[in-house]
Amino acid sequence: xxxxxxxxxxxxxxxxxxxxxxxxxxxxxxxxxxxxxxxxxxxxxxxxxxxxxxxxxxxxxxxxxxxxxxxxxxxxxxxxxxxxxxxxxxxxxxxxxxxxxxxxxxxxxxxxxxxxxxxxxxxxxxxxxxxxxxxxxxxxxxxxxxxxxxxxxxxxxxxxxxxxxxxxxxxxxxxxxxxxxxxxxxxxxxxxxxxxxxxxxxxxxxxxxxxxxxxxxxxxxxxxxxxxxxxxxxxxxxxxxxxxxxxxxxxxxxxxxxxxxxxxxxxxxx
Length: 270
Prior knowledge:
Blueprint: H1 3-6, H2 17-70, H3 93-101, E1 115-119, E2 124-131, E3 151-159, E4 167-174, H4 179-183, E5 193-209, E6 221-224, H5 232-237, E7 244-252, E8 258-266
Antiparallel strand pairs: 1-2, 2-3, 3-4, 4-5, 5-6, 5-7, 7-8
């Protein structure tokens, strides 16, 4: 055996330093591309989710108010004239005694605020009205025609305690038509249901038609953010029920940016 061949060391081919550097460079480019694509996909996903959430809240708010306001009307209880007391000089004591002995029928109490809109800090705080509520009717029996379910509907805009500047719109409904029943904090007539949250602002504009002495005269309208009108003289010039409701709504999104839109509805169109 040849000694030279016996002591010969066997070697294998490997990667050079330049080759390793090139591989690492390409690997870094691929990894950075994957990370940037993942970050872009995450941002797009968040933007889509925010858009869907915004559209869903807007649709729910728009549909609910549209269905409620379409059935708004002034019930006959609100048209009852309050009895005026005669001055003491014009009262005949004998007639008073005779009338007091006769049985008298109790007249129904006049319904206050059949349609009311209040604001606080130039923002909607309360919107309430009587509605026929076209979605729900009294259950009919055989041979009985369905009757609309007359209810008092209340919308309240409440600021969130944990997020100042963020508001939630609540809806309340009940067969008790007196608004005072719902203003009681304890055990109100019905529970409040959330309609939309993360609201920045809601402004209301109501349009009312002026009373006309002549039918041929041109229609004139009065606009206001509150109802009934504060000016009693102006309030007597318009009808009890406004004809149009306009809502300017601004909603916060997940990026704390506000998007605004307007909703316009005819009142009592059902």
